[in-house]
Write a structure and sequence with these properties.
A hairpin with a 3-residue loop joins strand 13 and strand 14. The strands form five sheets. This protein has a nine-stranded mixed sheet, with no helix packed on it. The chain is mainly β. It is elongated. Helices cover about 15% and strands about 40% of the residues. It folds into two domains: about 160 residues, no CATH class; about 150 residues, protein yfey like fold (Sandwich), CATH 2.60.460.
């Protein structure tokens, strides 16, 4: 038992030693007042990458070795897409992603864990990478020169995230605001009139900023005037009109709201769901993951709860997540129009 405790103590000192050494090697590449998260020179290219941070901002920079950066991206600590070590596996590694339009730059660094005294006497194996995607499609995959990899494992970004009121959710692989507490019961509920095994969303949730599915044009008149977008989609002799507000589109058919769509965080559902929330925050507000989806899905959808499958409206909610794992779009539609 004493031998095991001694190994754990040695392992802890080993990690502390290498965290300090690996971070210190790249400190000069960070702006004054910033710490290094990870950095390296790129294999086969005369370029280098640095990810640095302070109490407020994380910064990505890439460019020629020893020269000025060709690309610099920054994000707040609260919003930066940082994924901490899972706590398992043969290596310790973390990664962080920065976004620039359709492009995403995922940078990671790590080193192998020692599992014996012999491992701790050997040279440490370091590794790192830069993965670039365009609209989610791989565009470039760069590997680091192992001996140039720095990686500041320790509190760092993780502690700053927690200090900002965020908690890591290993279920959805996103950060969740501690202001959003788990619900005692799920908003989604069984829908016995259709299929008791399938969850549905109450009709009261089909509302954005007070504009509701099924509202009449008379109720919306004070918001603006709709314009025709489709002459006669159903062959019923009546056009679909659209009212475009700041961040919200309202489709109207036969003087009734049949679709709502927003890409703005200003238009919230009654539950608090809105654009900009992480996937984990959406799951926490819903209370569960909709049927047929996983906690890491790129979209969620749910039908309206119907007490009468014949006469009630066939509404559907769709939530799309961007490559930054946050809500990009919330869309309600009446399937019958």
């Amino acid at each position: 038992m004493n031998e095991g405790r001694g190994l754990r103590q040695s392992f802890g000192l080993y990690l502390l030693f290498w965290a300090v050494v690996l971070a210190g090697e790249a400190q000069a590449g960070c702006a004054q007042g910033q710490e290094v998260f990870t950095s390296c020179q790129i294999e086969g290219r005369d370029t280098e990458v640095f990810v640095c941070f302070d109490d407020h901002i994380a910064t990505y920079s890439y460019g020629p070795t020893g020269g000025p950066a060709e690309l610099v991206l920054s994000e707040t600590i609260e919003r930066v897409d940082y994924k901490p070590w899972s706590g398992s596996g043969i290596s310790i590694h973390e990664n962080i992603t920065f976004y620039n339009g359709d492009y995403a730059y995922n940078v990671g660094g790590g080193f192998d864990r020692p599992f014996s005294e012999e491992d701790m006497q050997s040279d440490i194996r370091r590794f790192g990478w830069v993965e670039v995607t365009e609209s989610g499609v791989p565009a470039a995959s760069l590997e680091c020169v192992p001996d140039t990899v720095s990686y500041g494992f320790g509190g760092g970004l993780h502690d700053l995230k927690q200090a900002a009121g965020l908690a890591w959710d290993s279920y959805s692989f996103t950060w969740v605001s501690q202001d959003i507490q788990p619900r005692p019961t799920s908003i989604l509920r069984a829908n016995p009139s259709v299929d008791p095994r399938e969850y549905c969303l109450p009709a009261t949730e089909f509302s954005l900023g007070g504009v509701r599915m099924g509202d009449s044009l008379r109720v919306l008149g004070k918001l603006g005037s709709p314009e025709a977008i489709d002459a006669d989609p159903m062959g019923r002799g009546q056009a679909i009109d659209r009212m475009t507000l700041v961040g919200l589109e309202v489709d109207i058919f036969q003087e009734t709201v049949v679709a709502l769509s927003t890409t703005s965080p200003d238009w919230k559902m009654p539950s608090g769901l809105r654009v900009g929330l992480t996937r984990g925050e959406v799951i926490r507000l819903l209370g569960t993951v909709p049927n047929g989806y996983t906690a890491t899905a790129s979209s969620f959808a749910s039908h309206v709860c119907m007490d009468n499958a014949v006469s009630d409206p066939e509404w559907t909610m769709v939530i799309d997540f961007g490559q930054n794992n946050r809500v990009d779009n919330i869309y309600f539609v009446n399937a019958s129009y």
